[in-house]
Amino acid sequence: MSRKPDRKPLHLNAFLMSTGHHEASWRLPESPAEANSDIEHYKNLARIAERGRLDSLFLADSPVLMGDPGRRPAAKLEPTVLLTALAGATEHIGLIATASTSYNEPYNLARRFASLDHISGGRAGWNIVTTAGADAARNFGLDDTPLHRDRYRRAAEFVEVSTKLWDSWADDAVIADKERGVHALAERVRRIEHTGEYFRVDGPLNVQRPPQGYPLLVQAGSSEDGKDFAARYAEAVFTAQQTLEEGIAFYKDVKQRAEAVGRNPDGIKILPGIVPVIGDTEAEAHSLDAELEELIVPEYAKRQLAQRLRIAPDDLDLDAQLPEDIPTEDEIEGAKSRYTLIVELARREKLTVRQLIGRLGGGRGHRTFAGTAEQVADTIEHWYDSGAADGFNIMPAVLPSGLEVFVDRVVPILQERGLFRTEYTARTLRGHYGLPRPANRLFETVDHSEGHFGIGLAEVR
Amino acid sequence: MSRKPDRKPLHLNAFLMSTGHHEASWRLPESPAEANSDIEHYKNLARIAERGRLDSLFLADSPVLMGDPGRRPAAKLEPTVLLTALAGATEHIGLIATASTSYNEPYNLARRFASLDHISGGRAGWNIVTTAGADAARNFGLDDTPLHRDRYRRAAEFVEVSTKLWDSWADDAVIADKERGVHALAERVRRIEHTGEYFRVDGPLNVQRPPQGYPLLVQAGSSEDGKDFAARYAEAVFTAQQTLEEGIAFYKDVKQRAEAVGRNPDGIKILPGIVPVIGDTEAEAHSLDAELEELIVPEYAKRQLAQRLRIAPDDLDLDAQLPEDIPTEDEIEGAKSRYTLIVELARREKLTVRQLIGRLGGGRGHRTFAGTAEQVADTIEHWYDSGAADGFNIMPAVLPSGLEVFVDRVVPILQERGLFRTEYTARTLRGHYGLPRPANRLFETVDHSEGHFGIGLAEVR
Q: Recorded E.C. number(s) (chains A, B) (predicted)?
């Protein structure tokens, strides 16, 4: 591969998930039985990723028990809380928590992210999700999930309210003037008085403006609504892309949409997922992949696939291809683009249900790549140079071992090729991704006129 | 004072608040300017409290900017997040976070507390509050706060839902049977299918049962509704009591109410607040107290007092007593008992508004006690022996210095008198308070019949 030492470095995010992204990873002899609620396990993962100078850690989430608890570790510590614990175990790495705009209140969530950003010294990121599925809805007094488009409308307003709340304290609001007895300037803290379709929020927030201004805004939906949302709000996008061609098309599409709404396309980083299965030889890597595939319990996986396809498990025959009569993407509510990706993968490669289950076992639709460290570095470089990625969302099949081997063997190759940092040069998550700190929209100029909160300085002099 | 070496030890909780409970504490030369968002400041406080073998740390909270940001550090990091960070800086001490039942969803909040309990190894506590005030309501789409009684009804149902969610995984649900490929037993994880007046929640929770079963349940309301709620649900009660007589009456009242609903009165610990101002001599303590009082900005404090009394600031004359024409407790929505305490204090001692402001400056209605370490230990012992307290909520006027002097000088006296532990003997917050781990109400016996979640073990064999 050609070396271009002056090119921009790429970005790497470690997507953490209990014993690994492969659904059968927990069955390996070395996997800890209760990794999903063991803080020491997660601290270890965070330190490994930081040793590799990765940009960030990421936790997926949904406010519902996802899938069958028999099948794999299904319980998950709440991400803003878990990442706060990991902030204390690390110094540099970014901390990206998934949180739902459908099942939270902006005041509470904006405050937790602001708190995490303060506690971590500017390392918080928010993966904004709208949360599909009736099961989640039924944990919040609803019978079924709101419609896809409505969820995205709410998400957009949620982000608007959140950014206003983060802006409700000017960066210079706190003066702590002990002599005069004025802690914060009343005219530099103000109500937001937001009234919209979904929310009425007066503010101000009861946390000072976060070190990063806003946490890094991340998005992972790849449907049409999802891409429009990303183009407008996201600064990093996690996406599942099975082929280079699809990856290039997605990359172009999102960057163009961002430009169309007046944004700098460099301000939105595209990170496809990759499940690297790494061996000393290619054969060893494939053998590890096959070993994991054999550990999948087909009854569980078939049931999960049937749920995703909205058909009965009995309509799936393990040794036949997918039935013809399954819904179209338009008929699906939630995880729309992932649905299409899975169906197209099965049709394109004429996979039996059993084979499809094997292909989904590693990354649930994300691209699995088995090979040597060199080959993994090659595919990363190739996708990067081809304009399919600004970086990658690393999803080790097995944890911690898959992250260790990636950090110890793939990262040095990328560093040697001038593709990845050898030391952290920034202190914040935005800094790692080369993204600016947002200006405060409520305090662009000093405003002594109205809307301020509390007694003005003149009154206490 | 008489020594009774075989008596039960008392309990001590450190109530943390930025630069201290005295509203003017931040104006002292040594107070850090941004203590309220400085995680290192809080870690230092947590370690001091743990050095003193205190039972727990506690953070008050409300989802609104409380009071004037000019007056004192008003911003607050969100407690479940902040205490998670403190869990990593400590090993034994309990971590009690305030969270509102009026402005949260049970699924989300139960999950965060379960997560904190897992991360801290069983040290989480929840101070259950209903959150008064129109300002908070207006951060959540409401025009005004729900009525006092309605808020308590919702709180009761919220606690019921939360405990069911914590019970939705049997303690032995996870078997991690790698051979058969069964991570959790389907019949030991179940939906709660709660349908009530305020909430419909299907469950199960997506976090395994917390190490403590439930976090310690704490309550701090002292109104009639508040005492009834405490009697039914609380295991520890924080309360403001100005005089020993009132303290004894409150203690008896709550214990009797607990007995009346069939609870063991020992299972509910009463902890009055105390703001200790400690000097080498009594004169030095009073001088520190006077120094702090002089630093109060009367304009801010008068405005705050007027708000509490629901009158205009101009109706208060700093050098006169409270006007006659103020509301009765019945007309007040929220913080009802504190309202009465303040009015009675002012009337009983015939205080001018300026004097009342000084008396409230330290603990906002909690009892301030200025004296030597020996005198502070004496008053603690006296209240304890008189049946007014099972322990105390320690509210240092200045932080960290007030906590340091309490830990280094008062705690050793209490230990010498056999009143306080010299080492931690338990690993959990419940253990420190001598309270049992609650049994699981959904899995008292193994139930293979119905309501379980996922595929049964037989199906995957």
A: 1.-.-.-
Question: Chain A partners of B31 at a C-beta cutoff of 8 Å?
Answer: 178
Residue B13 DSSP SS3: strand
pLDDT at B181 over 90: yes
Q: Say whether A80 sits in a helix, a strand or coil.
A: helix
What pLDDT shows up at residue A456?
53
Q: Report which residue type is found at B223.
A: S
CA–CA distance, A321 with B331 (Å, rounded to integer): 71
Provide the β-strand partners of residue B273.
B393
Burial class (CB in 10 A: 0-12, 13-18, 19+), B454: buried
Beta strand B236-239 pairing with B269-278: parallel
Say which of A87, A138, A454 has its CB closest to residue B69: A454
The DSSP bridge pattern shows strands B236-239 and B56-59 to be unpaired
As a whole number, the mean pLDDT across chain B is 92
Whether pLDDT at B309 is above 60: yes
- Report ipTM for this prediction: 0.94
- Answer whether residue B398 shows pLDDT above 90: yes
Superfamily for the A11-277+365-460 domain: Luciferase-like domain (3.20.20.30)
Q: How far is A266 from chain B (nearest CA, A)?
A: 32
Please report residues of B whose CB lies closer than 8 A to that of A215: none
- What's the DSSP call for residue B430? H
> Do B214 and B166 contact (CB within 8 A), yes or no?
yes
Tell me what pLDDT residue A449 has: 45
Q: How many CA atoms lie within 13 A of A225 on its CB side?
A: 18
Go through A328-358 and write b for each residue having 16 or more CB atoms within 10 A of its CB, e for each that does not: eeeebbbbbbbbbbbbebbeeeebbbbbbbb
Assess contact for A343 and A333: CB atoms under 8 A.
no
Q: What mean pLDDT comes out for the span A304-331?
A: 88
Token pair for residue A190?
A: 């103000």
State how far residue A423 is from chain B, nearest Cα, in angstroms.
25
Burial of A415 (0-12, 13-18, 19+ CB in 10 A): middle
The span from the CA of B215 to the CA of B428, in Å, is 10
Task: Tell me if B126 sits within 8 A of B106, measured CB to CB.
Answer: no
Domain boundaries, chain B: 11-277+367-460
pLDDT-wise least confident of A82-86, A137-141, A224-228, A360-364: A360-364
Chain A residues closer than 8 Å to B200 by CB: 138, 141
Confidence of residue A149 (pLDDT cuts 50, 70, 90): confident
Residue A458 has pLDDT above 60, yes or no: no
Of all residues in chain B, the one with the smallest CA distance to A32 is B176
- B91-103 pLDDT tens trace: 999 999 999 999 9
3-state secondary structure of B279: coil
Q: At what angle do helices B79-87 and A106-119 cross, to 10 degrees?
A: 30
* Angle (nearest 5°) at CA B282 between B281 and B288: 90
| B428: closest CA of chain A, how far (Å) | 16
Instruction: Give me the residue label for tokens 């607040």.
Output: B273
Q: What is the pLDDT of residues A404-437, one digit of tens each?
A: 999 999 999 999 999 999 999 999 999 999 999 9
Cα–Cα distance between A117 and B338 in angstroms, integer? Answer: 34
For B272-292, what is the mean pLDDT? 96
Cα(B6)–Cα(B432) distance, rounded to whole angstroms?
A: 17
pLDDT > 80? residue B335: no
Out of A27, A29, A81, closest to residue B80 by CB: A81
The per-residue pLDDT for B456 is 53
Q: Which helix (H) or strand (E) holds A125?
A: strand A124-129
Superfamily per CATH, domain B11-277+367-460? Luciferase-like domain (3.20.20.30)
User: What is the distance, to the nearest Å, from the Cα of residue B284 to the centroid of all Cα atoms in its chain?
Assistant: 30
Answer whether A206 sits within 8 Å of B33, measured CB to CB: no
